[in-house]
Amino acid sequence: MTPLGFAVIGSGFQGRIHAENVAASTRADLIACIDVDGARAEALAADTGAAWASASVDDVWADPAIDAVVIATTTHTHHDLALQAAAHGRHMLLEKPMAVSVDECREIEAGAEAAGVIVVLGYKFRFTAAARAAKEAVPDPRILVAHTLYDPAPPGAGGWVNDRTLSGGRLVSSLVHAVDMLRFLSGAEVVRVFAEGGLVAEPSLGEPDTTVATLLFDNGAIAAIIHGTAAASGLVSTWSFQAARSGINATIHDHGRRLSLHRPGAEPAHTLVVDPSTDPFRAGTMPLLEGLVAAIAGEAAEVPGSRDGMLSLLVSRCVEEAMTTGQPVMVPSV
Hints:
Blueprint: E1 4-9, H1 13-24, E2 28-34, H2 38-48, E3 52-54, H3 58-61, E4 68-71, H4 78-87, E5 91-94, H5 102-115, E6 119-121, H6 129-137, E7 143-149, H7 164-167, H8 170-186, E8 190-198, E9 210-217, E10 222-228, E11 240-245, E12 248-253, E13 258-262, E14 270-274, H9 285-296, H10 306-325, E15 329-330
Parallel strand pairs: 1-2, 1-4, 2-3, 4-5, 5-6, 7-10
Antiparallel strand pairs: 7-11, 8-9, 8-15, 9-10, 11-12, 12-13, 13-14
């Protein structure tokens, strides 16, 4: 097939990763880099070989060579940009969280469906070799664990993430990743949550940054999440997940780059996947792009869509509610 034309909207840290992936793909052509900081967009375009750069997203909609966009901007802009992309018939890879609110997610989903465009959410951890192997090794886990503790950001770094109006909240902006992975590994939907938490590591936030939550799935599986910015372990990797049932435990660790299987009486744990050479921030991002391209081409592609983005945000908001009320929260049906 003729390579699909792409524009990357947002030329920051994650936008650069996506732009480099598009530039490296044989099925995609990086046409434009966009950023409100025009100089940053021009620098990324020069580094990746994009045809042009701009500070205005309107230039994307005016270019008929662009078939799809990557939206890697601050969360509060996702709703407007996604609706614009749909209105102009552009498919999209939309970074997580999908939007600031569940209502905004609904509007994005409805707009994309009306326009007949494909939306893929940036849940990259699903596409790591370790996650795929874990799901194959334990296809019906009864107990799941997400351990996603990481270091506080240095002063001044990623300041927009700490502004609830821009990111939707520091806790939720990253918690959606953990929720999506548990949904993926379980193959089920969350029906009830309970959580405790609060402001542990970054007092300047003025809102919770840490939670310990329990999730009940509609197939009876249960999960625990330990999530926040207190400090990384150094022993247990920053992003680690376990999927277990009687007789087997699959542990994803090393920021999603390794999978180890443990069976009682078979020590030590057998390491099935080892991918330490991959930058953990890039892990899974190229398969995410390839999945979008395949879906646009009408090929079979298992990709996280707008419903996944909506549900992961909804469950994360329910965790916030449970932390506030001190009561279990039933997850509303969407």
